[in-house]
Amino acid sequence: MNRNGRRLSALIALAVAGVVLALLPRVAGSYALVWISLLCVYLTLAASYDIVGGYMGYMNLGHSTFFGLGAYGTAILLNHGQPLAVAAAGGMVFTAGFAALVSYPLFRLRGAYFALATFGMISLMKVLSNNLRDLTGGSGGISTPPGDHTIGAYYLSVLIAFATLIVSYRVSRSRFGLALFSIREDEEVARAFGTPTNLYKSLALVISSIPASLIGGTYVWSVTYISPPAVFGLEIALSPIVMAMLGGTGTLLGPLLGAVFLTSCQELLWTKLPYLHLTIYGMIMVLVGLFLPGGLVRTAWFRPELDRLGLGEKISYPDLS
Amino acid sequence: MSTILECRNIYKFFGGLTALANVDLAVQEGDIYGVIGPNGAGKTTLFNVISGALKPTSGEVFFAGKRITGRESNKICRLGIARTYQLVRPFASLSALENVLVGVSFGREPLLPAEERVTHALSQLDFVGLGEKAEEAAENLTLVEKKRLEIARALATEPKVLLLDEVVSGLTPTEVANLIEIVREIQSRGVTIVMIEHVLKVVMELCRTVMVLHYGSRIACGSPAEVVSDPEVITAYLGTTQPQTGGDGA
Predict the structure, then answer these.
(1) Cβ-count burial of A159 within 10 angstroms (0-12 exposed, 13-18 middle, 19+ buried)?
(2) In chain B, helix, strand, coil percent, each to 5?
(3) Nearest by CB: A192 against B53, B101, B118
(4) A199 interface with B at CB cutoff 8 Å
(5) Could you give the angle at which helices A277-291 and A254-272 cross, rounded to 10 degrees?
(6) Among A206, A283, A285, B31, which is least packed by CB within 10 angstroms?
(7) B107 vs B158: CA distance, rounded Å
(8) For residues B156 and B120, what is the distance between their CA atoms, to the nearest angstrom?
(9) Do residue A195 and residue B106 have CB atoms under 8 angstroms apart?
(10) Which of A186, A196, A320 sits opposite B118 (nearest CB)?
(11) What is the H or E stretch that residue A11 is in?
């Protein structure tokens, strides 16, 4: 298939998905909408994590810090009477600023040290949000103005998730993305061949923090209440990373497949097997890890198809720039 | 001909170990300059100092009259010094083309417009004979192909000086002959070459000037013929004959 043909089929698929998702609130109940919104939260986190964790090869275990900061920032601004757009933008600017600031000390570390330091960042945030009582409400959490935002949050979450995938795609096909890949493979050599590694590492962290903070803002707006364990807990910290890995880290569609697969598994098991759902969930993760180490996208079912569509890892010449 | 690359009184210590001691080097533009010496003599350290991967403890490096001592390696690359690695270090999971594209996209100044980068990268791959393998992941290439890929990646930055770190080690005689041809052709494009080499045949054939390092010091410098007949060099490579004293076994 030539490039235009591929582009056309991708556009048609996107348009169909867009129409279905746009019309869904007319037919589906709020249960389905809330489920899809949550799926989009995980998808956004997994896909934005993967820019640093997959493309650049720095395992940022503290990615959910950005989610939590976005959520808290948005909540505080909402409570000061700001409209959602202003509140979410404020939360985003604050989070991106934080990411830029911590990138300097964090990126002096590599490998496991980097992963552990970023993981420590979550605990730091938990302590801060528990103790800055006037600002965050402490361990009692923070409530935002109430209201039924199910449909609004659904549209916003889908939009943010979609935008995150677009950003991820653009990055992977850009000169900047090439630099991230080369940093993942051998940072010293990347530097010796002219890549401004320090600047690009910070930039990658800031770019990955933005979708996470926006989806955090949307999340708190929709559920109207968050507490430190809800946004700085282990579930929200590790699930997106597991999803990115199960789907295939360092690829555009890995996080998407991983998020859909794991969220669906969780939902099915939870509703059909309430007593054993965590056991089986864990078993599925272990089995996928054992037998599909490259993730779902690198299996024989998906790989050739994705390459054919120009969405796989293999980047064809005209796309490279 | 003018001096394009110069090192003055370079010292490099790693803790108590002296890796380089008072090393001077002056490379004329358009030359092929050889650096030889036994293992551990400090040859690769010298390359690391020139390319900015390591800062010298003291001493100065000049490139085209400009002082570049201690500058960051990415800036030195953009100025026009590119290198290859003794133990090849391609970006393993990236394709050969992408490897070269890193050099094209970041290692040269001014930057090429997006549409010309791929063409430029492909022409470098063609030059080293890897045109057919452009889409192959670097980790799947053979050793000689990886070495060629490293040369292509370095050439993609349009260097004025190319540092080659043992490009022919571990290759068969035919492969060596092919690489010698490639090096000659690079020189004919006006690129100055500094090469570390253990294979003396290659040095004798290519280099006009050779420097010998031993325990971090420069022990000889001159034409290849002069250098290999230097008594100190012979001692460094082969050792001295122990006077036969006998009896004293302590």
Answers:
(1) middle
(2) 40, 25, 35
(3) B53
(4) no
(5) 150
(6) A283
(7) 8
(8) 7
(9) yes
(10) A320
(11) helix A3-27
Q: Do B74 and A197 touch (CB under 8 A)?
A: yes
H/E run at residue A62? none
Whole-angstrom distance, CA of residue B170 vs CA of residue B144: 8
Pairing of strands B161-165, B32-36: unpaired
Count other Cβ atoms within 10 Å, centred on residue B2. Answer: 8
A to B CB pairs, distance under 8 Å: 81
Q: Do A195 and B94 touch (CB under 8 A)?
A: no
Q: Which of residues 153-182 of A touch B (CB under 8 A)?
A: 175, 178-179, 181-182
Taking each helix axis from N to C end, the angle separating A3-27 and A30-50, rounded to the nearest 10 degrees, works out to 140
Which of B91, B115, B157 is the closest to A182 by Cβ? B91
Q: Which two tokens stand for residue B162?
A: 């190319």
User: Is the alpha carbon torsion for B103, B107, B112, B113 positive or negative?
Assistant: positive
Residue with token string 């030059």: B127
Look at residue A295 in the predicted model and tell me its pLDDT: 84
Looking at residues A28-37, what average pLDDT do you find? 89
**Rounded CA gap, B106 and A192, in Å?**
10
CB of B190 within 8 A of CB of B154?
Answer: no
Q: Is the pLDDT assigned to residue B240 strictly greater than 90?
A: no
Residues of B with Cβ-Cβ distance to A303 under 8 angstroms: none
For B36-70, write each residue's pLDDT tens digit.
988 888 999 999 999 999 999 999 999 998 999 98
Average the pLDDT over A183-189 and give the result.
95
pLDDT in tens, A124-133: 999 999 999 8
pLDDT at residue A314, as a whole number: 67
Per-residue CA distances from A109 to A8, A102, A196, B65 (Å): 44, 12, 17, 36
Asked if residue A83 has pLDDT above 50, the reply is: yes
**Set of chain B residues whose Cβ sits within 8 Å of the Cβ of A295:** none
Enumerate helices (H) and strands (E) in chain A, giving the number of each. 15, 2
- The percentage of residues in chain B with a pLDDT greater than 90, rounded to a whole number, is 72
Q: Give, to the nearest 10 degrees, the angle between helix A254-272 and helix A234-247.
A: 120
Distance CA A151, CA A64 (A): 24
Q: A136 pLDDT exceeds 60? A: yes
From chain B, the residues in CB contact with A181 under 8 A are 91, 93-94, 98
Q: What pLDDT, on the 0 to 100 scale, is given for residue A315?
A: 67
- Whole-angstrom Cα distance, residue B212 to residue B43? 9
pLDDT classification of A48: cutoffs 50, 70, 90 = very high
Give the one of A190, A194, A197 whose C-beta lies nearest to B78's C-beta: A194
Structure tokens at A261: 């697969």
